[in-house]
Amino acid sequence: MAVQPTEHVSIGEVLAALRDEFSDITISKIRFLESQGLIDPERTPSGYRKFYPADVARLRWILFQQKEHFLPLKVIKTRLDEAPPGELPHDPDEEPSPPARKTERSRKPARDPKPERDAPAERRTPAATGSTKARSRKASVEAPKLPLDDEAEDDLAASVSGASFTRGELATAAGVTDAQLAEMEGYGLLHPAAGSGNRVLFDEESLTIAKLAAAFAAHGIDARHLRMYRHFAEREAGLFGQVIQPVMRQRNPEARTRARDDLVELARLGRAMRAAFLRETASELLAD
Asked: Which parts of the chain fold into alpha helices (H)?
């Protein structure tokens, strides 16, 4: 991805640019690194992240340290903090990293990524429209213009993550008590990713769910009320599974890629449909 020093790209474009180099990179993981203070992308007035070349270089360096040197995030953050301002740490056995100078960023008004989202399919970037094969396969069908979340380029990407937490670490990271975490487990909101008994590990999705549950709790909605989201997600996944299973039975890489593209699109459509129903129903609550 060639980006001029003063240009910025969306989180989805960053994901597309780095995925070949780091197969486990996901939008959820990028957000997690931001939440841990390792990256700090600017935002547009409407809240979308803006990644400049310096941000992409910093993210690539972080991912490289995780992949090649297996460094924990605390060590990576320490090395970044100790580096000269605007530069990345340099290892003697590695090629020098390009300077990551935020002073090169343009201060002109940010472009809102939404217009590109609603642009005709032939003018969209690959990051916004999926694989070339998926685009050519659907070229004869005009895609509806839907109010989809620009940062939800791939709703399924968050299912792959390198982060893991013990129960105590998860409670601390989510800002909840052990009792609240146990309640979430008891009502089926949280499922351990590995281990059993007292030696279990949770993934990054569990952290997201725990944080959301804590936010709901602040409004008086506790874990037992949130089970409906889990149940609906399972039913929705079952429905989508019926759609892609015929493709998956072909058992070849191309078919698997096509099935995943379809599943991502279905997930995005489901998100938009739920939002539309909620807006329609919630508006009645405020009616006179």
From this structure: 11-18, 27-35, 53-69, 73-82, 114-117, 126-129, 132-137, 167-174, 178-186, 204-217, 223-248, 253-285
The residue among 4, 53, 11, 7 whose CA lies nearest residue 158 is 11
Please report the pLDDT score of residue 288 as a whole number: 60
pLDDT tens digits, residue range 157-171?
A: 554 446 789 999 999
Number of domains in the chain: 3
Which residue in 11, 51, 3, 50 sits closest to 30, CA to CA?
A: 11
- How many other C-beta atoms can be found within 10 angstroms of the C-beta atom of residue 45? 8
Where a domain ends, among 91, 120, 140?
A: 91
Give the N- to C-terminal CA distance of the chain in Å, as an integer.
Answer: 52
- Based on the fold, state whether residues 252 and 270 are members of the same structural domain: yes
- The answer to whether residue 111 is domain-embedded is no
**For 177-213, what is each residue's pLDDT tens digit?**
999 999 999 999 998 888 777 788 998 889 999 999 9
Range(s) of the domain holding residue 46: 11-91
Question: Is residue 10 exposed (0-12), middle (13-18) or buried (19+ Cβ within 10 Å)?
Answer: buried
Tally of CB atoms within 10 A around 163: 20
My answer on whether 24 and 87 are in the same domain is yes
My answer on whether 209 and 232 are in the same domain is no
Q: How many CA atoms lie within 13 A of 5 on its CB side?
A: 8
Which tens digits make up the pLDDT trace of 207-252? 999 999 999 999 999 999 999 999 998 899 889 989 988 888 888 8
Domain holding 52: CATH number?
A: 1.10.1660.10
The rounded distance, in Å, linking the Cα atoms of 129 and 138 is 11
- What is the pTM for the complete model shown? 0.47
Decide which of 91, 122, 145 is a domain's last residue.
91
